[in-house]
Every structure is written in structure tokens, then in C-alpha cells.
Specification:
The chain is mainly β. It is built from 2 helices and 17 strands. A 4-stranded antiparallel sheet has the order 1-3-6-5, with no helix packed on it. It is globular.
């Protein structure tokens, strides 16, 4: 009887020792496995920070600065700031004879040494009908809660503009279908023609913005084609994607998306500027 009790105690002690050893082995194995970090978090941490502490500078200009009566120019204001931080005035101090009309706006992030600098542009179309000098005077906008002065800009309208002058950089929105059902996809092409001399600029960070459609980011393609423009065939940069209408609006067709298109160009010879959609 005494032997049986001791034997049972030995079995119990042996079993307890095995259980403790197993727990220690499991804990040791768990400690040696490195934690797996989310790949998306790794990608976010690897990105350079956005520059938000530098002085905000506003620029204003007409593109082109000299036109003929009836031609179109783009009044453009650019800030080195995030678009969400800019409180834009409802009306501009512009000459009423300019025929100014608000167009597209957009924001891009340009990578510099160790940081990404935001650039936000506001575009307005102008259609002056008479000759003369037209001015949008200096005004103030609020950026990051502080006042920022937008300088004055001048447009000159001549009966006969000088030959070889600067021409307007234009984007064209091309859509084969304009009457869509809700949920119906359609192709949209943004065309940026080059010059007759063969010079071509590419587009980066094209943005199709609006509440009535969805953009298929997986269907984006870019290419260069030869297309007729201005009486000659020029190289043309083509940005193509698929839009899907998601709500019904009477009287709204795909052509009304022109005012919702914004893009940015990064020319080799000029500073970055937002192009306008005619």
C-alpha cells in the first residue's frame, strides 16, 4: 500500500514536470517569433513628411498673358499649401469686363529633399471681348489660419497679338458616351497635345473629381498618340480611365464633367502649373 502511494506520487510529479516544461517551451517559442507589422503601416512610415511649417507663398498669373479679343486665358493662383487649409474668397476683385468664370482646382505633392511640398492651384477662365489691360487686384486669402496676400495679375488684350507668343496649355476631356444609366461605365480620355515642333509634356497626378461618378483606379492607362490639333498632327499624351455613374441628374451629361477635371503638368522648361480644361 505504501509502495502504491509513492508510485502514484511519482506519476503525479512526473506529469506536473512535463506540463511545466511544455509551458516553458511554448512561451520560449512565442518569444522567439518576431511580430509581423502591417505592410501598409510600413509603407506609410517610409514616406517623407509633408512640409507644413514653411512660409506660404501665393503666385497669380494669366496663361497666356497676352491674347486677342474673344480668345481664352486662364487666371491661376497657386499656393505651396494643402488645399483643405485654404479659405478661398467667394468673389475675386476682378474687372467685370474680363468675363471671369471659376474652373478647376487641384492639389499635388512634389517630392523635394526629404519632404513632400504641397501645391494647390485655383483656375478661372476669362473671355474678354475688348482690347485693353485687365487687372485682378491684390487680395488676401486665409491659409492655415493666417492671412496670405495674393499679388495682382494683369492680362493684356491686343487686336493683333505678336507672332510666336505664348499659347494656352489646354487639356481636352474626350468621352464617347454622354447619356448614361446609373451604374453604367464609360471610358474617359484626357488629351494633352504637344507642339507642332514635336515637344510634348506628360501629365502626373490627374484627378477626376465630382460626386456623380466613380473612377476605376485599376483601369488607368497612359500612352502617346499622333492626333490632329491646330491644323497639324502633333504628338498627344493620352490619359485614359473608366468612369461609372452613380446617381441620376436630369440635364446632366458627361460633358458637364469638364469643369470637374483638374491635372498638373511638370514641364521640363517651366515650373509646375495646373492646366485647364476648355
Amino acid at each position: 500500500m505504501f509502495f502504491a502511494i509513492r508510485h502514484s506520487s511519482f506519476v503525479i510529479r512526473s506529469t506536473a514536470s512535463l506540463v511545466i516544461a511544455g509551458c516553458l517551451s511554448t512561451a520560449y517559442a512565442q518569444q522567439t517569433v518576431p511580430p509581423q507589422q502591417d505592410p501598409l503601416i510600413n509603407l506609410m512610415l517610409s514616406q517623407p513628411p509633408i512640409e507644413l511649417n514653411g512660409p506660404v507663398v501665393a503666385t497669380a498669373s494669366f496663361d497666356p498673358p497676352v491674347i486677342a479679343p474673344g480668345q481664352q486665358s486662364i487666371y491661376r493662383v497657386t499656393f505651396n499649401a494643402l488645399g483643405a487649409s485654404i479659405q478661398w474668397p467667394a468673389e475675386l476683385p476682378a474687372d467685370p469686363n474680363l468675363g471671369i468664370q471659376r474652373s478647376a482646382e487641384g492639389e499635388v505633392l512634389q517630392v523635394t529633399a526629404g519632404a513632400m511640398v504641397p501645391t494647390t492651384s485655383f483656375n478661372y477662365r476669362v473671355h474678354p471681348t475688348g482690347v485693353g489691360e485687365f487687372v485682378v487686384t491684390q487680395f488676401v486669402a486665409t491659409v492655415y489660419g493666417k492671412p496670405v496676400t495674393v499679388p495682382a495679375a494683369q492680362l493684356e488684350v491686343l487686336a493683333e497679338p505678336p507672332a510666336g507668343g505664348q499659347t494656352l496649355q489646354e487639356l481636352t476631356l474626350e468621352m464617347p458616351e454622354t447619356n448614361l444609366f446609373v451604374g453604367q461605365p464609360t471610358r474617359a480620355r484626357v488629351l494633352y497635345p504637344g507642339t507642332a515642333a514635336g515637344q510634348l509634356q506628360s501629365l502626373t497626378q490627374v484627378q477626376l473629381t465630382g460626386e456623380g461618378f466613380l473612377v476605376d483606379q485599376g483601369a488607368i492607362s497612359q500612352r502617346i498618340e499622333s492626333r490632329p490639333h491646330g491644323g497639324s498632327t502633333v504628338p498627344t499624351f493620352v490619359y485614359e480611365t473608366i468612369l461609372t455613374s452613380r446617381r441620376y441628374e436630369r440635364g446632366k451629361s458627361a460633358s458637364s464633367l469638364r469643369d470637374l477635371l483638374s491635372a498638373s503638368t511638370f514641364p521640363a522648361l517651366w515650373s509646375s502649373a495646373a492646366a485647364a480644361v476648355p
